[in-house]
Amino acid sequence: MLTLLLSSALLWVAAQGYADPGACSGACTTHDPAVIQRSSDGTYFRFTTGNEISVAKASSLDGPWTAEGSVLPGGSKINLAGNTDLWAPDVHQVGDLYYLYYAVSTFGSQNSAIGLATSSSLDAGTWTDLGATGVQSSLGSAYNAIDPNLIQVGTSSYLTFGSFWDDIYQVKMSSNAETSSGSAYNLEYNSTGTHPSEGSYMFAYDNYYYLFWSSGICCNYNTAKPATGSEYKIMVCRSSSPTGSFVDKNGNACTSGGGTVVLASHDYVYGPGGQ
């Protein structure tokens, strides 16, 4: 994931071809991966949807990856349906602790919330669930509060999130990044079809902030594929500020359907996303 995003930033003006997927050995089949390198010893940790947020680790991004257990084997303390089937982890070092944001929801529902767990080491069995961050949604909300992603800018922290409905939103977080501290605002909106944008990821590079997201239909390819071009692909916009406004390479606003394709189906790769 990190290699892909850094490469994408360097290729803001789209290249004509796509790089092949990188090598991976060991426990490689995952959904919604988040990868971080432990500062104390350089070990890589990968957190994924499933098994109450699965934990795996390796000495290299290539692997071999070894499954280590779960972040929250008892589920989340958030009182919502789906609190024993946690989704879409996002992990960062905040001060001396590691923060892992996660989503509680059920498929197709807006009854959703973003939670937070912390650890001093990243290892399975060391995580403490802090529960709700205050970022949540219900039927009729403008957004769906899943797919969290934190970015730290100086002493400020922002959480980007969203899936379908009015797509990608952001909210400023408290000084310790544990709870929201303001109202959410829109960063990206695709008015076509079912508004299929989700899985945002933001990072800073060379005086710009890059907002990546997955666009299209993601799932159940083994039973039925969507119309050609409607499957998952990775998009990007950028801004000189982490709060926007974001535009694509042609200057189109991200909130008005803008977005540059970074990675799409090609050769033997179908529906790339979940970056």
Characterization of the model:
- This protein starts with a helix and ends in a 12-residue tail after the last strand.
- It has one helix spanning 2-10, and strands spanning 34-37, 44-48, 54-58, 66-70, 87-94, 97-104, 112-119, 128-137, 149-153, 156-161, 168-172, 185-188, 197-205, 208-215, 233-239, 260-263.
- The strands form four sheets. A four-stranded antiparallel sheet has the order 1-2-3-4, with no helix packed on it. Strands 5-6-7-8 form a four-stranded antiparallel sheet, with no helix packed on it.
- Strand 5 and strand 6 (97-104) form a beta hairpin.
- The longest helix is centred in the first third of the chain and has 9 residues, at 2-10.
- It contains one helix and 16 strands.
- Residues 1-16 have low confidence and may be disordered.
Itemize the secondary structure elements and their pairings.
Layout: H1 2-10, E1 34-37, E2 44-48, E3 54-58, E4 66-70, E5 87-94, E6 97-104, E7 112-119, E8 128-137, E9 149-153, E10 156-161, E11 168-172, E12 185-188, E13 197-205, E14 208-215, E15 233-239, E16 260-263
Antiparallel strand pairs: 1-2, 2-3, 3-4, 5-6, 6-7, 7-8, 9-10, 10-11, 11-12, 13-14, 14-15, 15-16
**H/E element order:** HEEEEEEEEEEEEEEEE
Distance between the termini: 6 Å
Low-confidence spans: pLDDT under 50, at least 5 residues? 1-16
- The radius of gyration over CA amounts to 18 Å
Shape: globular
The residue-averaged pLDDT reads 93
Oligomer: single chain
Beta percentage is 35-45%
Largest beta-sheet characterization: 4 strands, antiparallel
Total number of beta strands: 16
**What is the strand arrangement across the widest sheet?**
1-2-3-4
Secondary structure class reads: mainly beta
Question: Helix fraction?
Answer: under 10%
Number of helices: 1
